[in-house]
Specification:
367 residues; alpha/beta; eight-stranded parallel beta sheet; three-stranded antiparallel beta sheet; 16 strands
Length: 367
């Protein structure tokens, strides 16, 4: 992977990744497009947001419409119309979140489709082949994700299995991937710091393009998560990007950047938008609240997004109450703009060696 470390302020980093479908400058938040598209938005909306990379879901796309069909239709970029970069996860999180449909297997993960109940086996090599068919710019290895709290024995098993699967994945990748396909390993170990050390060092000894910190935001406290990130990130190679999977609130992102994380994804901005919670520099806005029914103000007077430039709180309140479909688009545009601008501000602060002040200011404003 063509990679440069542009600046560092404490542990906070500003990177540039040159991928096949454009540059990605970090810190970066990746909107989640589970089914190959961000809910309620299209590719033009994503261009308007200046989102250089989004996340798609290997498990869901494998089941519907299938990776083979997507490959025939031009891969994710041709199929979706989004010509930016795609990172695809491997299905490990779905094995965790849909665990009533899954069971352990020596070779991988056995699961029943949540759509029709059909049986399937995900192995380290199979999930990569699916991602190659999708033409993913960044492919995630299959990992063993454990919810917290968990026993030491179960966490150790997850670390051992994840390392073994990562080794198989890297061998397969070297033989079958095209140059535009990059591969990230995933560090496991729960909040047990010795196991995080073991996982990070074992995976760092392998020549992956980047490294993710997985297995967090699955039941532990915010303090435990921050402590685990602070312990784990410095163990990972300085010349490779670091990705914190599935996290989280704006405050979480600011804290994780301060601890050396570069990349993020989470459903929170779009899910909260659909459920009526909107982010602003004055704190969260519950748009269903009757106090907004007569407000001609934008959601955030400091925001430059399409929604704030054209629509009032009263109008968004009305759309939400009426369950108009346009509400979901306008709210999602605003929340994603908020997250992406937060990351752009963080990058600028790192470049000017001012991240501590930026973080403190943002945390105070967010409340």
């Amino acid at each position: 992977m063509d990679f440069s470390l542009d600046a560092q302020d404490g542990y906070a980093r500003a990177l540039t990744l040159c991928l096949a479908h454009g540059r990605v400058q970090t810190p970066i938040f990746m909107p989640v497009g589970t089914q190959g598209g961000v809910k309620s938005l299209d590719s033009q909306d994503l261009y308007g947001l200046k989102a250089p990379i989004i996340l798609a879901n290997t498990y869901h796309l494998y089941l519907r419409p299938s990776h083979t069909r997507i490959a025939k239709l031009g891969g994710l970029h041709g199929f979706s119309g989004f010509k930016g970069n795609f990172l695809t996860d491997s299905g490990g999180f779905q094995a965790f979140s849909l665990r009533h449909n899954t069971k352990e297997h020596d070779q991988g993960i056995v699961f029943k489709s949540h759509i029709d109940g059909s049986p399937h086996l995900f192995t380290p090599t199979k999930v990569l082949d699916i991602q190659y068919a999708l033409n993913s710019d960044i492919c995630m290895v299959l990992d063993d994700l454990v919810g917290l709290p968990a026993s030491y024995e179960r966490l150790l098993q997850a670390v051992q299995k994840t390392t073994a699967w990562a080794q198989k994945s890297l061998e397969h990748h070297r033989q079958h991937a095209r140059p535009n396909h990059h591969i990230f390993a995933i560090v496991q170990g729960g909040t047990h710091l010795a196991l995080r050390t073991q996982s990070a060092l074992e995976l760092s000894a392998l020549d992956f393009d980047g490294f993710a910190i997985g297995g967090l935001a699955v039941g532990e406290s915010a303090l435990e998560m921050y402590e685990t990130i602070a312990h784990t990130a410095p163990l990972l190679p300085t010349h490779k990007p670091r990705y914190l999977m599935g996290v989280g609130t704006p405050q979480d992102l600011l804290e994780a950047i301060d601890r050396g994380v570069d990349m993020f994804d989470c459903v929170m901005p779009t899910r909260n938008a659909r459920n009526g919670t909107l982010f602003s520099m004055q704190g969260k806005i519950a748009i269903k609240n009757m106090r907004y029914k007569d407000s001609d103000m934008p959601l955030d007077s400091t925001c430059t997004c399409h929604t704030c430039a054209h629509y009032s709180r009263a109008y968004l309140h009305h759309l939400f109450k009426a369950r108009e479909l346009s509400y979901f688009r306008l709210a999602s545009l605003h929340n994603l703009h908020f997250y992406l601008e937060l990351m752009r501000g963080a990058r600028e602060a790192i470049l000017t060696q001012n991240y501590a002040s930026y973080k403190a200011c943002m945390l105070e404003r967010l409340g």
